TrEMBL record:
Its EC number is 2.7.4.3. Belongs to the adenylate kinase family. HAMAP family: Adenylate_kinase_Adk (MF_00235). Keywords: Hydrolase, Kinase, Nucleotide-binding, Transferase. Monomer. One of its GO terms (cellular component) is mitochondrion. The keyword NADP does not apply. This is adenylate kinase. GO terms for molecular function: AMP kinase activity; ATP binding; hydrolase activity. NCBIfam families: adk. It catalyses: AMP + ATP = 2 ADP. The keyword Nucleotide-binding applies.
Amino acid sequence: MAVLSRLLRARTTTSYTIRTFSSSYSTSPPPSSPENDVIKTPTDGRNVQWVFLGCPGVGKGTYASRLSKLLGVPHIATGDLVRDELNSKGPLSEQLSEIVNQGKLVSDNLIINLLSKRLEAGDAKGESGFILDGFPRTIRQAEILEGVTNIDLVINLKLREEALLAKCLGRRTCSQCGGNYNVACIDIKADNEKPAMYMPPLLPPSHCASKLITRSDDTEEVVKERLRIYNEKSRPVEEFYRKRGKLLEFDLPGGIPESWTKLLQLLNLDDHEDKRSAAA
Ligand code: AMP
């Protein structure tokens, strides 16, 4: 924990303004909504320090990874750190595997230790800023993070409950290249209260198709437990940041192209790469 404090303290600043990004993405005044008032960026030239919240399966990894490429900051997913540790067959791996495969959270101390190590390694490489995905997941983690650094923005991704389970069960990774795909096709009809929602599958290219693996904690029973734990332990973290004026709510409207475009609009960012490849 001390390491996290030291590392993050070094990154801490106090002055912020409404964001004015430049370089590879263009700017224009954000649309006037209370939510956009929270989109802030540091004024001292350091990179953004953002957090992604949201239920399992909502797509935190997808959007955090895209934004990290766009903004040139590391995407740090604590779930990946846990899986790396688990696969390393080190002293903690058996204990971790049991916790993860039951859909439970690992201890705050352990996760902070793993995150500290990751930040330390990044620091040594000259990284600055971050997009955290899957951390903080408890009020204690949020308090520790808040105590040691300024988080500029917390994006709360939201998706209807009925789509979350299907998305977790459809998740696949290529064991060779690490590419992430989803074989689920979400097609929810409109009802009196909610509009229709369509999320097409994200299918792998043919060279990955025979190498797909499923996460061991993406079974129906475990996903339901992870959703229950999210509601119990992580939902209060949303309120923690809402009270501090840092929470940006984003309801995913559909599949990745539609959602990515809308998210960029909300953040007042422009993805020139994406536009170029769409035009090609
Ligand atoms: P994820 O890939 O984010 O779904 O995380 C996979 C698993 O890693 C979770 O179900 C937890 O067991 C563990 N984990 C990841 N991040 C945290 C965290 N911030 N606190 C506690 N456990 C975590």
